Please model this.
Amino acid sequence: MTIRRPALSATLLALSLTLAVPLPVPAALPAAVDGQPLPTLAPMLERATPAVVNIATESRVALRRNPLLDDPFFRHFFNVPDQPRERKAQSVGSGVVVDARRGYVITNHHVVEGADTITVTLRDGRRLTAKVIGSDPQSDVAVIQIPGNNLAALPLADSDNLRVGDFVVAIGNPFGLGQTVTSGIVSALGRTGLGIQGYEDFIQTDASINPGNSGGALVNLRGELVGINTAILAPSGGNVGIGFAIPANMVSRLMNQIVAHGSVRRGQLGVAVQDLTPELARAFNIPADRGAVIAQVSPSSAAARAGLKEGDVVLSINDKPIRDGNGLRNAIGLLEVGEAARLEILRDGKPMILDAKIGEYVPAKAQGDAINPRLAGVTFEDIGPNSPLGGRGVRGVLVAKLASGSPAARAGLQRNDVITAVNRQPIASTDDLRQIASRSEGLVLNLLRGQGELLLMLR
Model:
């Protein structure tokens, strides 16, 4: 990062001439005007900032190598020196202490993903080694734990009470500079469909958030945690006034599951959904201001047992309004297996209440070495109807796990890739993958990686 300083020489020369005659010294800013103290966030920040920590991680990353470099004859013949097989990678982020007694710190999954060592620096300068309790890639939430006494924690606010226009403050470690505070307002609520992560219900804010703020706190003027800063819209690479935070209520539910199970046991209702468009609303003769339409009900699912039918419009779950299909998927994805769900629906224009018990989502899996030797070390999963990927209309097979150094990893396959076609034949399940790849020698894979598409050849 380059910090530019303005030229001062000519200005200083001019000032030396004009200041030859002593001038009156301006008075300091008064502490009060007309007997009223000036507004300041300092008292609140003095309470809140000790609970926000800086996180530094270090990991080892395998380097992609030309296969010839592993051939002893080639190395000897061309006198090729030894090449490093991995490099060290370092990153910085932020976190929030939410349980001082047990030392639990909330941060983003992407801040600690793959880290070999995690060092947490407190506001008072203490440096502590942290361990990962668990994380959830789909929501980008992780829980780590630090030792130590006299920790400060932030209380969690009810983020459902946030309103557009509320003042908020972002606290974090932008660009690794150290703890920094910025302020702004809540710009929007319930942002979804951004493709940043699987389950989205973001708070949007114009408080400056930059790289390194990930995992930091978004607090209200009472110093309560209303969100965990997680992403920015940054065409230029820096802040442009559009930042996103995961609401505290979502964070709280996910943290409880991560602490209890080490991961999020995401529930399944067993439906495929779509947004309630104006055209569908006219067809159903209902208002189009909110709701999600049930497009398909899986047999023997929680939805089928509750009596849901195709064409039902879900208006709320457990009294939480449902705006669209993403909202329904988020609401179900945050419920634990076995938890009760009270659904307010419209059926043929008539209101109804149905009670469902959330089932466990267990996607079909397949091991790559049982399909094709070139896929050894890979665990594949189906994309189910309740998956965020399925909710976005993605058809294919997910790379759920990938062994480091496996043939597929050396060829360039990555975890969370989605294989949409094999040898130009579209696939929608692990069964499709097995049928096509098991009878092929070379494999040409069509992949979705993030927002991009690419081809990968496994020979």
In short: The chain has four domains: 47-145, 159-261, 267-360, 365-458.
